[in-house]
Design a protein that fits this description.
Strand content: under 5%
Shape: rod-shaped
Helix content: over 70%
Number of strands: 0
Largest sheet: none
Order of helices and strands: HHHHH
């Protein structure tokens, strides 16, 4: 492979790459439809021109055929009048117009085929343009959907989900810690209340027992009848001794 061939291939490859990158599908679709519509206009003009030529050829053929028939009638008239020379001349004119009519008929048949071919091409092109417009709208919708999806994926990719989820995890831990502290504080308050009520209940028993002992020690109260087998209450001196021992024991605690 020669150097110039390699350079040409590299240049064409780079140009194709640039063209591919520069192509916008929506713009290319729009331009394609515009080009097809321009072709349709040119094809309509060609059909109109062919039809006009066909009509002119048809007129010329009809005229040549009419003149051929007219000279045929004149030749017969001249022959009936006994003028063979005039009849011969009329037949020569008739032959000339008949040949012209034959040539025009061949041309007319060719033009008719061309017109029919152009008409079929025109109908096919109109159908293709209609189909292309529908397909263009569908493709444009798909292109726009693909671009939107690509933009969404790019946006999602640019968002740091790990850091966001890490923030949620940290906030969840803080909420759990706050709930634990609140629960612990509630339990402490409940324990304090239970302790206070227990102390009150305990103090009430002691007070009741102390009041009963005071009632027994008061002189004005009548001694109660002791049940059988129990000893009578201690004397005042013995009670004082017992109280003194109790005070000393409490002081040593």
């Amino acid at each position: 492979m020669g150097l110039f061939d390699r350079i040409s291939r590299v240049v064409r490859a780079n140009l194709n790459d640039l063209v591919n990158k520069a192509e916008d599908p929506e713009k290319v679709l729009e331009q394609s439809v515009i080009d097809m519509q321009e072709d349709l206009v040119q094809l309509r003009q060609a059909v109109a021109k062919s039809i006009a030529q066909q009509k002119r050829t048809q007129q010329q053929y009809n005229q040549a055929q009419s003149q051929s028939n007219q000279w045929q009638s004149r030749a017969q008239l001249a022959l009936q009048k006994g003028d063979e020379t005039l009849a011969r001349e009329a037949l020569v004119r008739k032959k000339s117009h008949a040949e012209t009519a034959t040539t025009l008929k061949t041309q007319l048949d060719t033009q008719s085929q061309q017109v029919e071919t152009l008409k079929r091409s025109l109908v096919q092109l109109e159908s293709k343009i209609s189909e292309a417009k529908t397909k263009k709208n569908m493709l444009k919708a798909r292109i726009q959907a693909a671009k939107a999806q690509e933009q969404l994926q790019t946006t999602m990719g640019s968002i740091s989900t790990s850091s966001a989820m890490g923030a949620f995890d940290r906030m969840e831990e803080k909420v759990l810690e706050a709930e634990a502290r609140s629960q612990a504080a509630g339990e402490l308050v409940g324990n304090d209340l239970e302790t206070q009520f227990a102390q009150l209940e305990s103090g009430s028993d002691v007070d009741d027992e102390l009041a009963a002992m005071k009632a027994q020690l008061t002189g004005g109260s009548e001694p109660k009848q002791l049940p059988e087998g129990e000893t009578p209450a201690a004397s005042s001196a013995e009670v004082d001794d017992e109280l003194e021992k109790l005070r000393k024991e409490l002081d040593n605690l």
